[in-house]
Amino acid sequence: MIHCQIEDGILKILLNRPEKKNAFTNAMYRELTQILSKGDQNSEVKVILISGAGNAFSAGNDIADFMKSPITHEDAPPINLLKALAQLTKPLIAAVDGVAVGIGATLLFHCDLVYAQKDARFIFPFVSLGLVPEGAASLLLPRLVGHQRASEILLFGEPISADDAQTLGFVNKVISESSALPYAEQRAKKLTTLSSGSVIRTKFLLKDGALKNAVLNQIEIEGKLFIDRLHGPAAKEALTSFLEKRAPNFEGLD
Ligand code: COA
Question: What is the pLDDT of residues 165-186, one digit of tens each?
Answer without folding.
Answer: 999 999 999 999 999 999 999 9
